[in-house]
Write a structure and sequence with these properties.
Helices cover 30% and strands 23% of the residues. The chain starts with 11 loop residues before the first strand and ends with a strand. The protein has an 8-stranded mixed β-sheet. A 4-stranded mixed β-sheet has the order 1-5-4-3, with no helix packed on it. Strands 2-10-11 form a 3-stranded antiparallel β-sheet, covered by helices on one side. β6 and β7 form a beta hairpin. It is α+β, with helices and mostly antiparallel strands.
């Protein structure tokens, strides 16, 4: 929503595009500049370059039919939330009666490539881009949602096409690497043709310098117009092909670790087994019966107030939830992890960059209507965004982070007795670990995460298995994933309580997280900035942990023994007992 920030009389201030309040008309990208609805004598702006970086813009002052004493400074840029789309002030033209901002072909093409639908001039001489998802102006041929660019290694896909296709088949992916290669070849060919026209245009401009015969000058001018039109067409074609290339390229999953078993979920192999199944001489209850009997969980009120798959933790149940969170955080802090609490809402493009599909079919993500925000399904997304668009010195790696957060999931398609109660819900609390590191460190750190999980669940006295998950069970970002499944006697099966994934550079290429490699040899050429590796693992998914604790430590009288490590975090409570 735009806010009216009109400069008051007698003030002097700088106007940025964020301060812009648009007029009642818009000009689609790719068309000529309209004449503003106001007319007055506006002298040519005193233009000056405000910086030298990629966000370079022109700024200046101008006077018009404004209240006496008011002065405005024009500064702007084609920008989005993710950064600069193009430089501003490529050309400013005036007439004897009025002046207006004119965006040249390169600027309009840059806007189209980056997801802008329109540029709009305003009374304050600021320039504003309407992003694709607003839908407030006509489409300029830019595909919806392409507001960020993944740094995909298309050349590597082309050079290893057969291997990439085999990897997609192994992971049961719908991606089409062959199409990606064809689009990449088309894009590079167009780029070469556009460069040739651009060079010809530069030569044409050079030829017009100095004194020339009138006939020759006219010929050069005509040639320049033709070259300008050709370049505009190439830029439009490039923008369209690049959008398709990004769309198809993002579908390609991460590479797969050579030790990952091929096939469906049943092909997953046992990596390690800890403990033994609990043995009892009484009839086992499931966690729903136990929790209701102890008066620590209320599903009926949750359904009445919020809907199915919501719940209230109450009495000792609320204490148990907080105990699990604080115990898990204390353990990971002792391992050197920085702790965070994160927002519940996250920008849609950050969700996409982490490899999730917020608008896809059967998505697990709740999207906020009429905004670019989503409810976070895991703090992995929020922690991944901490270093988004940053370059980290190699000496600071690895960076270990852990966050407590609320998680929200639609659980589309989930139904049946196996998902009843707390096992599969729409909202839950979780402690998540996340690591940013160099490629050389990621394999060892993946083992570190697995060892931390094993230590945590062993300390609670649970029986569990660690599985090396099969290729078809890997999400697109994961290079390799280990799941931890605990025995749940009430459900009469093993249930997932944690996972640990190595995503290598899949997420960092989308989040644009790089590190500055440390040069070990003096005098050698400075090494390039490289993409980091990211890893994530669950320290404690609270509802699943409560299921495992209630079902494994239940007693014949309906009470439940509290695992010893949690007792200090529950005020010394050792046993949960039914109310009298």
């Amino acid at each position: 929503m735009e806010v009216d920030r009109t400069v008051p009389a007698g003030s002097s201030r700088s106007l940025d595009w964020k301060d812009w309040k648009g007029p009642s008309y818009a000009q689609p990208v790719g068309m000529g500049a309209p004449t503003p609805p106001w007319t007055a004598k506006r002298p040519m702006m005193d233009r000056k370059r405000t910086d030298r970086g990629p966000s370079a813009a022109w700024s200046g002052t101008e006077d018009g039919p404004l209240p006496k004493g008011e002065k405005t400074v024009w500064t702007g840029g084609l920008r989005s939330d993710e950064g600069v789309l193009a430089q501003v002030g490529r050309r400013v033209s005036t007439t004897s009666r009025n002046s207006h901002i004119h965006l040249d072909i390169a600027m309009r093409a840059a806007a189209a490539r980056k997801g802008a639908r329109a540029w709009l001039p305003s009374r304050e001489w600021a320039c504003k881009v309407v992003k694709a998802r607003t839908g407030s102006v006509s489409d300029a041929g830019v595909e919806e949602g392409k507001r960020w660019k993944a740094n995909i290694d298309y050349r590597a896909i082309r050079d290893n096409l057969q291997r990439v296709e085999e990897n997609c088949r192994k992971r049961n992916s719908s991606a089409d690497p062959g199409l990606v290669v064809r689009l990449y070849d088309e894009y590079t060919a167009l780029q070469q043709q556009a460069d040739a026209v651009r060079n010809a245009r530069n030569e044409n401009a050079k030829a017009m310098k100095g004194k020339l015969e009138e006939e020759k000058r006219k010929g050069l001018i005509e040639e320049g117009k033709i070259l300008k039109e050709k370049l505009a067409q190439y830029e439009e074609d490039l923008a369209a092909v690049e959008n398709r290339l990004q769309t198809e390229g993002r579908k390609i999953p991460n590479e797969t670790h050579p030790d990952v078993p091929s096939g469906g979920e049943d092909a997953s192999t046992l990596f390690r087994e800890v403990g033994h199944k609990v043995q009892t001489d009484f009839e086992i209850k499931d966690h729903v019966q136990i929790g209701v009997g102890l008066d620590i969980v209320d599903f009926d009120t949750g359904a009445k107030v919020s809907g199915n798959k919501f719940y209230y933790m109450k009495n000792a149940g609320a204490l148990l939830e907080l105990a699990l969170v604080n115990w898990a955080l204390s353990k990971v802090v002792a391992k050197g992890y920085q702790t965070y609490t994160t927002p519940d809402l996250v920008r849609e493009n950050v969700v996409e960059r982490c490899g999730f599909q917020p608008r896809g079919e059967n998505t697990q993500v709740y999207s906020v209507e009429n905004s670019d925000l989503c409810l976070a399904g895991t703090s992995e997304i929020l922690l991944g965004g901490v270093y988004m668009d940053e370059i980290i010195p190699e000496t600071e790696l690895p960076i270990r982070m852990a966050a407590f957060s609320h998680c929200f999931r639609t659980e589309a398609g989930a139904a049946g007795a196996a998902t009843r109660g707390l096992y599969r819900v729409h909202q839950f609390s979780k402690v998540e670990m996340f690591i940013v590191c160099t490629p050389e460190q990621s394999e060892a750190l993946h083992q570190e995460l697995i060892e931390i999980e094993e230590e945590l669940f062993t300390e609670l006295g649970l029986h569990f298995k660690i599985l090396d998950m099969s290729s078809e069970d890997l999400g697109a970002p994961a290079y390799r994933k280990f799941d931890v499944e605990a025995w749940m006697p009430g459900l009469q099966r093993y249930g997932e309580i944690s996972s640990a994934s190595n995503c290598t550079d899949y997420q960092s290429r989308r989040l644009n997280i790089r590190y500055r490699a440390h040069s070990k040899q003096a005098g050698k050429k400075k090494p390039p900035n490289l993409h980091v590796h990211t890893l994530n693992a669950t320290a404690c998914a609270v509802p699943r942990m409560i299921v495992a604790i209630l079902e494994n430590f239940q007693q014949v009288d309906g009470s439940v023994i509290v695992p010893e490590p949690l007792r200090p975090f529950m005020g010394g409570i050792e046993v949960l007992v039914p109310p009298s």
